[in-house]
Design goal:
Helix content: 10-25%
Oligomer: single chain
Distance between the termini: 63 Å
């Protein structure tokens, strides 16, 4: 076997050498026939299972004995995968945290290898039932003795190799695992590919992936959390912190048509592998992930935790059995389809009316679309942007019921929905195609990156895009060829960033999408008039700017800024757009809204007028006095209570709308200035009786009323998404005695809601005093900002002690109180220290590093991803000391294995600090001497060529 494998490797290397040296060999096709089976898939099953599956085994033979003795059978795993609607299984046994076991007989010594061919049995069982098998391979030797026993046998592998190889180093482990790839390729013809858990330098230097491509051209390669060009897929691991929590694509960064996976654990708690617990599976969360991933053409790679005998814990089995009956009725909407609202066309996914949220899938061969309502609205209808598709029929996919619908003003409304699935109500939508867009539009821009010109904006291809070259503001001009009617823009931004600020494995991420914009128009390209200003939500899929009725040849979209902040430099000011289309009209369908203003009773001077962007193509204007009213006499609800009344209003100037229900005193709400021919929603909480109610609407200013609708109030658990930035960030270590801390805070409303009576201020501990008044705004809408600065001073005659200063933003949502807050922790530094600062302190400069949580660390955070390049460093400016002399610098850090910092003081030559430790969550302290000047100094921690330890805190004595 050994000589056979060696002869095989020598032969293939000779045959491949010329091809591997050809320019461009390291770049694989984004689309390739070998990927077709995965593109047609919805999901995969990820199995972490090895020697350290509970109960842990430290002896390979004993583990295999218990596997076989426990009744392990490959058909069980394949059957569980099929219950989930999974087309493939990824087996992670050769895993750094599971003992590096190989579930196949191997003649290459170095770690556990079974005598029974478990991998071969699984591949054959999968082939018999139409399920592919992919093998996980790790690049990481750092956990070689995690259990106190050495799991890698360097001596045995060195003897086999004929040279000294240390498997506990990345170079040595790279050689070992490199050989294993070839052994697997030689012996398992029906394997579907490799799932790579990050790259190893030895593999890359020896062109492993290129050799796999030529030896096994039908096999897939997937990389975890890295977009490596030669790989077929990018896997996005365990994303959390989204809203809704199930909206996994909101945290991903891979645009179509690149194949991508969402790799996540089905159990809510516990490890990726069986740890002895029967952990709960959140059905709501995981069905939502499954559907929203399908709505973005992302494959759901669901991780379950088989026990030693291969069986799943009871709660995972229960979930699998549920999926076996839940998926089949909607299978046509999630298998063999693509996510809609992107390059494959389709209506707009995301947030819809009255709290509804969902996605669209589309069959690219038939054009049929599927509306997946994952979060149901607080109403009996769903209203979403139609993206120019003229709808001909709507059917409930589970029940077959034909649904009533209406279509106007760019929206499809599915009406009278009485039956909702608990997790995903699916409507099959047939259309007569897409209409109402101009072709032949030419684009130019004030800034473009080389190779990404503005012409890509209107070329009809989603595989080319325009890059603004980090310029902001930046303007895009659209030339219609001659003077024409224009009604709206449809914009598909590059889906290469998450929709919100987050940290992923210590890497700061943020949205690169348009925030504030201005739009102007011209007939000659010289004289321009203002059309509209506003903000776009940070959301995936097609976004729309309605502009009323414009007769122009040129439209200019000026992007003032994007949602991303400077804390995520990779995404800051990085605007990319796939396509912009200009629409001239909206599709009209059957029926109409039941609460249209033009159909209600009118009094005084109000009158109906044309409005193409309004739901019935008309609105009511002429409000001015209390006598000018529109009265709806049949606003019906099933039960008495307080409801959300939504009014779609136009407003050519700042206005006020007033609502009276059943003759009660009116409630008034301010309406910001926008356009006289484009409605925007304003909502107010109103009490309604069971049955019929009368709603009277009046107003002042240049106000127009399009329609009203009634829905439930948001639940008390719902708080509109905001970003509250509080500085200083991190524990503030202050000197003894009375001290003052300057605090700044900035609140941004990220949700498309209206909040009122907004106040922002610190809340001080007893005895502290505050300089500065609360920051306030009467109301805020999407992208609105509120900022404030204050000074908090501790009591005189005492140390600040250990306190936390909350900074609270309070506001009302439809009359109900809401609050978000941040905290500034303050601590008096130890008496034997002249300076203390957290690594995560906002006073520091982080380069391309990032913050991550660390419970045992001094401030429950640390800085990660230090080292490997010059910008992957942490710099502490303004390190202030009382006198010029030598100091002891205490470095608090975490590290797993030997790594080094290079520490530079005031720009001087870096000094290497070699460190070692076990586990990334155990803080250690190292001490080195440094010479500092009296006053402010700068200290930099980095390692330009290799990874450095994570940094928790520094202190001086």
């Amino acid at each position: 076997m050994v000589m056979g494998l060696r002869r095989w490797c020598v032969a293939v290397v000779a045959a491949l050498l010329a091809g591997l040296l050809t320019p461009g060999a390291a770049h694989a096709e984004v689309q390739h026939p070998r990927q077709e089976w995965l593109r047609q898939s919805t999901a995969g099953l990820f199995l972490h299972w090895g020697m350290f599956t509970a109960p842990k085994h430290l002896n390979c033979a004993e583990w295999e004995r218990d596997v076989t003795g426990g009744g392990w059978t490959p058909d069980y795993w394949i059957d569980e995968a099929r219950k989930l609607g999974a087309s493939y299984v990824v087996l992670a046994t050769f895993h750094s945290r599971l003992g590096y076991a190989r579930p196949w007989p191997s003649k290459i010594p170095g770690s556990c290898a079974t005598e029974r061919d478990l991998l071969g049995e699984l591949v054959r069982a999968g082939k018999a039932k139409g399920v592919k098998v992919v093998l996980y391979m790790t690049d990481d030797p750092q956990w070689h003795s995690e259990q106190g026993v050495q799991m890698l046998d360097s001596a045995a592998y060195s003897a086999h190799r004929g040279e000294q190889v240390d498997l506990t180093t990345r170079e040595g482990f790279g050689k070992y695992s490199y050989d294993l790839f070839f052994e697997v390729m030689k012996n398992y013809d029906d394997l579907a590919g490799f799932w790579i858990d990050n790259d190893n330098e030895y593999w890359e230097r020896n062109k492993l992936y290129e050799q796999i491509r030529q030896l096994r051209p039908t096999w897939l390669l997937s990389n975890n959390n890295e977009d490596t060009p030669i790989m077929d897929t990018v896997s996005n691991e365990q994303k959390t912190g989204m809203f809704p929590s199930y909206d996994y694509p909101a945290a991903t960064f891979t645009p179509m048509p690149r194949l991508s996976e969402a790799c996540y654990k089905l159990p809510t708690t516990g490890d990726w592998w069986y740890d002895g617990g029967n952990h709960a599976v959140d059905t709501r969360l995981n069905t939502g992930r499954y559907i929203t991933n399908a709505g973005s053409s992302i494959k759901s790679l669901m991780a379950e935790t088989p026990m030693v005998n291969g069986r799943m814990p009871a709660q995972q089995e229960t979930y699998n059995n549920f999926m076996a009956s839940w998926v089949p009725p909607i299978r046509e909407s999630i298998q063999g389809v693509e996510g809609a609202g992107y390059m494959y066309g389709g209506m707009q996914p995301g947030f819809w009316n009255d709290g509804a949220h969902g996605v669209i899938t589309i069959n690219p061969r038939t054009g049929k679309q599927y509306v997946h309502v994952v979060t149901r609205p607080r109403a009996d209808f769903v209203r979403l942007r139609d993206n120019g598709y003229r709808v001909t029929s709507v059917r409930d996919l589970r029940t077959g019921e034909r649904m009533r619908f209406s279509q106007s003003a760019g929206h499809l409304t599915i009406q009278g929905i009485a039956r909702w699935d608990e997790y995903d109500t699916v409507f099959a939508v047939e259309t007569a195609g897409q209409q109402g867009f101009y072709t032949g539009v030419k684009a130019s821009a004030t800034s473009s990156s080389n190779g990404f010109p503005a012409s890509h904006l209107t070329d009809g291809s989603y595989e080319t895009y325009w890059d603004a070259g980090a310029a902001q503001p930046v303007s895009i001009s659209l030339d219609l060829g001659r003077r024409r009617a224009a009604a709206f823009l449809a914009i598909n931004q590059r889906e290469s960033s998450p929709t919100h600020a987050r940290v992923s494995f210590g890497r700061p991420e943020d949205s690169s999408r348009i925030k504030d914009y201005q739009l102007t128009a011209s007939v000659d390209g010289r004289s321009w008039w203002h059309v509209r200003s506003g903000a776009l939500p940070s959301a995936r899929g097609t976004q729309f700017i309605d502009i009323g009725s414009q007769e122009a040849r040129f439209l200019k979209l000026t992007v003032l800024n994007t949602w991303g902040g400077p804390q995520a430099p990779v995404y800051f000011k990085q605007l990319r757009i796939d396509e912009i289309r200009v629409g001239h009209s909206y599709p009209r369908g059957v029926g109409g809204g039941v609460l249209e203003a033009e159909d209600a009773s009118r009094s005084g001077s109000v009158r109906g007028e044309s409005c193409a962007a309004c739901s019935g193509t008309r609105q009511v204007t002429g409000f001015g006095s209390e006598r000018d009213t529109v009265t709806f006499r049949d606003v019906s609800v099933g039960t008495a209570g307080t409801y959300s009344l939504r009014l779609d209003l136009t407003s050519a100037e700042p206005s006020v709308v007033s609502v009276s229900v059943n003759g009660a005193a009116p409630v008034s709400v301010a309406v910001p200035r926008d356009r006289a021919d484009v409605p925007d929603p304003t909502s107010v909480a109103v009490p309604l009786n069971a049955g019929r109610n009368t709603v009277k609407v009046s107003g002042t200013g240049k106000l127009g009323l399009d329609r009203i609708s009634v829905g439930g109030l948001p639940p008390s658990t719902y708080t509109p998404k905001t970003t509250l930035t509080v500085e200083p960030h991190g524990v503030q270590w202050v000197a003894p005695g009375q001290q003052s801390v300057k605090i700044t805070a900035r609140l941004r409303l990220d949700a498309d809601d209206q909040i009122d009576n907004v106040s922002l201020a610190p809340v001080l501990p007893a005895g502290w005093t505050l300089t500065g008044a609360p920051a306030t705004r009467a109301s805020m809408r999407l992208a609105g900002l509120l900022e404030g600065t204050w000074t908090a001073t501790s009591p005189a005659g005492a140390d600040a002690g250990s306190v936390s200063i909350p900074v609270a933003a309070s506001f009302q949502l439809l009359g109900s109180d809401r609050k978000v807050s941040g905290t500034v922790p303050v601590r008096t530094r130890p008496a034997d220290r002249v300076f203390v600062r957290e690594a995560e302190d906002s006073a520091n400069q982080f380069g391309s590093t990032g913050l991550t949580g660390c419970g045992p660390c001094s401030g429950a955070e640390k800085v990660r991803n230090i080292g490997g390049s010059a910008d992957a460093s942490v710099t502490f400016p303004n390190v202030t000391v009382p006198e010029t002399r030598s100091y002891k610098l205490f470095i608090q850090f975490t590290v797993n294995g030997p790594r080094s910092y290079f520490v530079s003081v005031n720009g001087g030559a870096p000094v290497e600090v070699k460190l070692d430790g076990v586990g990334n969550n155990t803080p250690y302290v190292a001490e080195i001497p440094v010479t500092l000047n009296a006053g402010a100094n700068t200290i930099r921690f980095g390692n330009d060529s290799a990874g450095a330890p994570d940094l928790d805190q520094i202190a001086l004595a």
